[in-house]
Amino acid sequence: MIIPSIIKSIINLIDKKKQKKIIELNNHDVFNTLNRVKNEVANMKFYTHGQYDKVKSKMCLDFTKYKTEVCGSRMKSLIKTRDIDKINKDKLKRIILEEQNLMHEEYIRAIIKDWSSKGINSNDIDYIIHLFEKFRYDVVVSFEHRINSIFGNSYNSTNFLIMLAVFEMWAMGIDLLPRDMQTTFESLNGKFKDIKYI
Q: Nearest to residue 111, comparing CAs of 176, 184, 11, 161?
């Protein structure tokens, strides 16, 4: 009786050592996706009344740069959270939801600061951000639903599998970013066309 329980303990210990660590997600494809999406947006060209609108194109790229850089940086920090492999699922869920909100708040603050420094007034900045968030709303709501589902099923038995599922979900949302950027900036009129935007 004692020998089988010792063997079982040894097997469990070996299995635990084999389990993947969340830090391994440092090489997840979500980071390639962020770079690819930024490059896709860099190749977009916007027009106003049939003429190339350099300012609108640059504003769109700058918005995308802040969003992708902030999200990538915060994801890298998230996977380095102390004891993230061992914390309980309720705490992990809270951390992920908080992180998702902080990503959003940080890149919005960054683009507001950047656009303000380039002479765009606060009403116009608010309008563009509101327009983007309107087109992005269904993706953000889907994130929340998917996170609840990820934590609510029995397939994701470890914190690594939960974070893997969350990163896959974020990568899917990032794939939709060029579409939402294009829709947002095509909806703007030519009011920024003649400003000196560097």
A: 184
* Residue (of 45, 72, 186) closest to 128 by Cα position: 186
pTM of the model: 0.85
Q: Check: CB of residue 178 under 8 Å from CB of residue 39.
A: no
Provide the angle, in degrees to the nearest 10, between the axes of the packed helices 122-152 and 177-186.
150
Q: Are 24 and 164 in contact (CB under 8 A)?
A: no
**Rounded Cα gap, residues 110 and 7, in angstroms:** 56
What number of other Cβ atoms are within 10 A of residue 96's Cβ?
20
Packing angle, helices 54-78 and 177-186, rounded to 10: 150
Cross-strand pairs, 48: 51
10-residue mean pLDDT series, the chain (198 residues)? 57 59 95 97 91 90 96 96 94 96 95 91 90 88 92 89 95 93 85 71
Q: How far is Cα 138 from Cα 151, in angstroms, rounded to an integer?
A: 20
- Cα–Cα distance for residue pair 101/151, rounded to 1 Å: 18
Q: How far apart are CA 63 and CA 136, in angstroms?
A: 14
192 and 121 in contact (C-beta within 8 Å)? Answer: no
